[in-house]
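U., I forgot to send this yesterday:
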Amino acid sequence: MLVKKSVDEFVEVLASNAPVPGGGGAAALVGAIGMALGSMVGNLTVGKEKYKDVEAEVIEILNEAKKLQAQLLDLVEEDAKVFGKVAEVYKMPKGTEEEKRKRNEAMQKALKEACGVPLKIMELSFDAIKLHRRLAEIGSRLAISDVGVGILCLKAALLSGRMNVLINLNSITDEEFVKNTNDYMEKICAEALSIADETYDKVERTLKKK
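Result:
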């Protein structure tokens, strides 16, 4: 499993000519790291007298964050699986017209499936960004910079997911699928980026006041 590798091993195979992990797996991992930073802020907040009034809410955030982090790590593996299916289609014979037809049908199916993982990365990153927005308001001021770093990681994961959707859409011939997927993706992106940028700016303003 890719997520069971050491950091050194993961980065080494990412840098190699191996088909996986690729941009999708990297995006999911960065998203998990971003959510982990938010969890760290939450854990540094819980148990502190100064934040006792928001402790229950922070614990709820931590529970949700743990789920998101696990789901994003799962997508590192899932991205490798769906890319593997695309790679298998490239090996299909294409000598006759019938073989070409079957190969094209299989490729279209595999590409549509491959869009699902980066879209999920975007959705989970959006959910994580919303948790960071709240942590910027109620989390420990001593760790506020980590909210900012977490937001940047999640923004990178979000946009990286978008890149992976786009490259798959470019080869899909189903115009309705392409339009619906693109519209949905751009809606997520616009809303998530607005919150991410707003939260990052808030963190930066807070830090500059010190």
